[in-house]
Structure formats: C-alpha cells, structure tokens
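All the exercises in this workshop are built on plain-text protein records. A record pairs a protein's sequence with a compact description of its fold. Read left to right, the backbone structure tokens trace the chain's path through space. Once this layout is familiar, the rest of the handout is easier to follow. Here is such a record, shown just as it appears in the course material:
>
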Amino acid sequence: MAEEAKNSGGETAVVPAQSHGNAGAAVGTAIIAHDVVQNPGLPPHRKRVTDLDPKLDKRAERTVYTLFYLSIAGSLGAVLAYMFFPIETGDLWQIRLHTMFVGIGMTLALLAIGIGAVHWGKALMADHESIDERHPVPSDEPVREAAAEVFEVADKESGFSRRTLVRNSLIGALVAFPIPGITLLRGLAPQDQDPVTLLKHTMWEKGTRLSRDLGGAEVGAAIRAADVTIGSVFHVVPENLGDATHVLDEKAKAIVLLMRLDQADLKEPEERKDWSYNGIVAYSKVCTHVGCPVALNEQHTHHLLCPCHQSQFDVSDQAKVVFGPAKRPLPQLPITVDSEGYLIAKSDFEEPVGPSFWERLK
C-alpha cells in the first residue's frame, strides 16, 4: 500500500518507505512524510527611503558622485605631494611629509571609490528580490540574447546610463586612481645612474671605520675591537655615512651587524680567515630574502633571525641559511683594525647585499 503527503507547493507527494530508512516496510509501500520542508516564501518587500522620497534619492546620488570626485582629488593630491615634498634630499622632515600626504591621498582615492560604490548599490540601484533560473549549456542563440537582455536590465536598474554624473565621476575616479602608483613607481629607479651598479656597491671601502648606528642619519662613535666582547652585538654603519648625498639610501645598503664569537666556534674557509678579527665578524643586516633588517641574535646558537619571514642565518658558519625562505647567506664585510685599534673595513662587500636580482652573477 502507498500513502500520500503534501509537498511544499500543496501537491500530493508519495515517498518510498526505503528513502526514510524504514527497512521493515514491504517493498512498494510508501509512507506519509511528516517533516516535509515547507516553502517559507519571500518576506514582504520593504522599500528604502530613497524609493519613497525623491529628495532623498537625489541626495544619495549627490553623495555618490561627490565621493567619486573626492577619489579623483585624492589621486591628484598624492601626485602633487610626491612632487612638492621630494625625498631625494634625505631630509627626514621632508620624508615624513612626503609619506604622510602621499599616503593620505592614495587612501582617500581608494576609500572614496569603495564607499561610493557601496552606497550606490545600497541606495540607488534597483532593490527587489528575484530568482535566477538555471539554463542548460551550451549556450545557444536565445541564451545569448537573454544574456544581452540581462546586461540591458542591469544597466537600467543600476542607472549607469541614466545617472550621468555618477557614471562620469566613477570613470574619472577609476582613471585617476592608478596615476599616483605610476608616478611613484617611476621614481624608484634613478635616472642618472645604473641601478645595477648601485645595488652592487656600498659606501664601505678600504680603511672606512665601523661606527655605531644611532638611528636615522645619525652616526655614532667609531668602535674599538677591545670594546666588542663575546656575545655582544653592534649595529654598524660607515663612519663617513653623513657625507653621502642620499644618506638613507646608502645606509639601507651599508648597515651591518657586528658581533664577537669564540674563535673556536667559527667555521671559516681558508680564503676568508682574514675577513674576521679575533672572532669579530661583520655581516650585512639586510636579509637576502626580501630585504628586511636581520636584527635578532640568539647568542647561544649563534643564529641571526629575520623577523619578517623567519629566515635564520648561522653566524658561526659564514651566515649560511639554516631555516626559512632566504636562499643565500648574508654577505660578509671583511674587517681588520687600524693602528689605533679601531675596526675598519678591508674592502666593500664582495657580493651584492639584500635580495637577489636577475643581474647578479651566479
């Protein structure tokens, strides 16, 4: 025997007993399903205030295109800030103003586009519930015509063609937004020098004293070998760093970590035995992964840790990579002492510092 059930549409539904796990029922029988899910339908449509009041609709439209115009102003403002607050002088105050105003401009450009687009969708575009019916594939001519009709309906409901101020301001904002990025990227490469040469050489040269890094463009006192005790770490820059035309650019390449180990712990190849002095070694502070400052020292393991992506370098073994994404050791700065006992460089680094680049010789 078979029994009937009413489905969500009010129609009679015959449900096989086996589908409900009723193994004791005879084959061919059916039962009434008492837990049939009812179609709840759609809730009553609630109109927005912009649908009910033309004045509020107009106000929302003004808000949207004003935000898009603000985005344009932010993009242009970032470009102007880049032009009127140059950072080539190395003046920290100029750099701070440059960073602040360029950042404000680009933030305004992106944020205004986002808020404007969201407000457009929530307050102005057509607000109604619809059901998207599935269609068989592949598409045929009627389907393509239906797709074109969907675009037409979307254009009508969004008001893209009708609301010209909103449309034009959005287009203007999208056109203006990439301009600051293009302008800033243009300034990354020097115009009068070969960037490959700049990456391969630093301010270190024979006889340059190692001095304490006091932060920013400030250079501290030169360092005596006698002041470097086992386990100590010094952040070091060239003594003549202040003479550079672009102090921060040169510092970014020349920063060094200086430390002293027990000579018995050092694993030095024969050709590098004269690169250290009584267990004192100096390595570039710039991580060979993406250029973050390697500044965390584990005294007992002799490991240097990059805080950005956790690359680890073994100072006792030529700063080789022991963990993390970095692919090559930290470059070593050959050092010795002068007649007064101050630590000096024997030469520049013998390989490029920082992340690898395609011009680097293998």
Summary: The chain has three domains: 1-41, 50-128+140-186, 195-345. The chain has eight helices and 15 strands.
